Amino acid sequence: MKIMIGTLAALLASTGAWAQTTEPTAPQPAPAPATTEEATTGEAAPADIIVTASRRSQSIQDVSIAVTAVGSDRLVGNQVNNLQDLQTIVPAVNFGSDFNQAKIFIRGVGANTSTTGSSTGVALHVDGAYVARAEAQLTSLFDVERVEVLRGPQGTLYGRNAVGGSINIITAKPTRDFDGYARLSYGNYNALVGELAIGGPIAPGIQFRVAGKTENRDGFGENPVSGKDVDDLNRRMIRGQLKFDIAPDVDLLLSSEYFRQDDSSGAVHYLRASFPGVARLAPLGVGGYATNPRDLASEDQPGTSSKSLAFTGTLRVGLTDQLSLTNIANYREFKSSLFQDLDLSAVQNGFTVNGQPSTIQERRIDSKQYSNELQFTYATRFLNAVVGAYYFNERQRPIDSVGFRRRSGLPNTPAILARDGIPLDLAYQLCGYEPGSTTGGTAAVTPKRVCTRSNLGTEAYALFGQAVVDFGLFNEGMAGISLKLGGRFSHEKVTSENPGIVIRYNAAAPNGALPTLNPTAAGTHRERTFKDFTPEVGLQWEPSRDLLVYYTYSEGFKAGSGENASGSTTIVDPETVKNHEVGVKASLMDRRLTVNVAGYSYKLDGLQLNKTISGGPTGYTTIFQNAARTSAKGVELEVFARPVDTLRFSGGLSYTDSKFKDYVTIDPLNPANVSGGTPYNAVTNPDPTAFGAPGGGNLQLAGNRTRNTPKWAWNVHGEADLPFAMPDSGKLTLQGDVSHKSRVYFSEFEREIESARAYTFVDAALGYSSGDGHIRAQLWVKNLFDVDRASSTFALATGRLIGVTYLPPRTFGASIGYSF
């Protein structure tokens, strides 16, 4: 509570916060207003969408950035409740998840690790505040004004680096008029979603807004052992905002958001053995797997318990007609507990049960982050400039444990620890427990077999800026031709500690165990400092208000980071990217047709990748390393057409050729790389699957495709206002969506088993809106043809098998809402 009060006080005392929806004080050339038909008949044309991707309010057609904006009407009409749902609307985005982490990829760049600690390649911002943890990015969308998806490196306009792109969530803000809405949706799997928002003035110069949402749904599968649901939903969230109009050119926005989740969503399911036919590396759960792919058999119910709390303060000060000051102060707490059985089976493993290592995993995350961004914006007819300073500090204390359950542990654990000179209280502390709060209440159950209590820190400073100079400043005849210059200096200090305990069993050893491993905080303490300067330069030509042509060269930087693995001293090197992009944005036929095209190529050095391999003292070994080089080239096309006012089409096409140029690594699914059994010997043990057999060791993966990136992706969206017998009473709108992705590989080895083959999803809806716009109702279906596809796979080294998460099956339902 003291931390929360102190943080709120700091926000109030801060010079404020930048909000992405904040408009500069200086007047901006406004796009032509939307016609009545455009404003009331559904999806707006891109030319009528105002975005703040370049840190000032502009029509999306005037921004020399590859950006897609999805407004609230489209989000509601397509039942978009989370970031994963965006990938059917924005083809350039691919989304997966495992270990309760969001895996967001844009143009082949994204989150390539399943250990907590590292930054994501695609940055997520909520009203300008960066959300660091991939686990915290799985929260739901509610009361959102729009979502902006920026593609390519971002750094000269934003507080936090992003090598792949940025997803910016802009929430609805308090207004001077009293307004609000209520929505309720019910569908199959007993899905019940309720959302409510209300806001308006509460005193002269003070406005408020409060919004909340609940999501409940039965599971897409079940645990046949317990009979409980798997992949269900139980989420609650609320946001409150207060806006103070302090003076004509000064306003302050205070915002607080809370999210809570308790369910078994995102479960990892059994797909296949990692080493079929290799007896010495048989999976640990044989005989206990669920028969239905969407079910998950486990003696312990898988589950996720998460909560996040965020405070943001935003102050805007208009210093002159051209110059404004903005600043962000944000504090976020995130806590999460993930429970799962890494053998994905009902078989109970334990040294004293079947001689196998126990596989029950618990991952607990406790993260606190603070950021502050100070920014000056200068805007005139021929010059727009942004200069900013950014500070970010995050401290993570994750606890990873794999361990004993019920009577599957070692009954002589205290004696083993005493023999090895390790205090029992220390073992409890490393596992995140105290003796009085252990599972079962006995030392026979805890401490766990493997425990890692990490301490990971990041402290970052940055100076950044960008200026767009219209040559009309020097010669009126050159108006419309602009030069863009920007740069960013980054300084980051990363610290890492991974103390832990590993209890190893061997029936022939004294007390039934080998010497216990106990890496210490001091022994694993590492620090690294990273500095980098990333420039940006571009040219843009706007011969008319309906045509923009641009070229941009930009660089991106992501600092190295540590990992939470027992005894690890790894802090990997940074990622850097050099990107070229050309684009054309055109509005034709009196804005009834909009065509945007972007082409790009980049080279990325030091891609940070994580994998695990079976074997070693814990039964698994984490590998966190830099791939040498990757490169990509691609084309993106977005089209909007409104041939008549009652008919609207939009769509997108993304081609991405993203490959490794030089990556030497070992294959976790090659038995020759996994220790155990009798080592290979050409005479006495010529088994080609034996540890150390020929064919093991490093592979060169140059030419292989990168993770989570389909070569082709496209979507088509259509809306038609149907003839209605009583037009004054409202309208009916039929809409449909078709989205397609070619094969997606989830590892760098291009294996079919670790991929999702090409698929096409079809969504449809029939909506009604009343003549006064207050009532909206809809019948909808998503994934109409019930296509089953993986959203990610992961080689679970502990269980020696491949796990899989799935995209949602067919869902359908009805929604009704009232707004005022």
UniProtKB/TrEMBL annotation:
It is a multi-pass membrane protein. GO terms for biological process: iron ion transport. InterPro entries: Beta-barrel_TonB, Beta-barrel_TonB_sf, Plug_dom, Plug_dom_sf, TonB-dep_rcpt-like. Residues 33-44 have a biased composition (Low complexity). The keyword Membrane applies. Residues 1-19 form the signal peptide. Residues 60-165 form the TonB-dependent receptor plug domain. One of its GO terms (cellular component) is cell outer membrane. Residues 20-44 are annotated as: Disordered. It is found in: Cell outer membrane. This is Iron complex outermembrane receptor protein. The lineage of its organism: Bacteria, Pseudomonadati, Pseudomonadota, Alphaproteobacteria, Sphingomonadales.
